[in-house]
Amino acid sequence: MKRRDFMNWIGLGALATSLPVAIAACQPDNTATDSADEPAAEVDATPREDGFGAIGTVAELDEAGSLASKSFQGQQVIVIRDPADAAGVIALNSFCTHQGCTVAWESDSAAFACPCHGSKFATDGAVTEGPATDPLGAFEAKIEDDQVLVKVG
Q1: Please, what are the domains in the chain?
Q2: Mean pLDDT value across residues 21-42
Q3: Would you tell me how many other CB atoms lie within 10 Å of the CB of residue 74?
């Protein structure tokens, strides 16, 4: 065996033995950092008979400040707590009406903002700052048990 062939086999062997480590490093960490953590509640986005589907849990909403999905029942949806009523929630279409970027909730300014061109929207979806001219679409939303439910249809 030539030296070059031998070195190629050694390199291939080293690569093959490091592959499981690389794959494991790319996996999400499912271990709880605190033994008191409760398991996450199952969220089923499938529409019920009344048309509502779960987009997330109340705990997730409170922790993150908003819940968002680019493909919730075929729609882009973002949900926040209603600033006027902490027991309520507001769900809007997160597809910016200007050029289709995904808006995000900015709790500092209490507005939805488009990162692409700077449009801003009020909590009811109304445009507060252009270039967008049309409001964001609204969806019916509610809290039931520990689930945040949205009806897009």
Answers
A1: 53-151 (2.102.10.10)
A2: 50
A3: 8
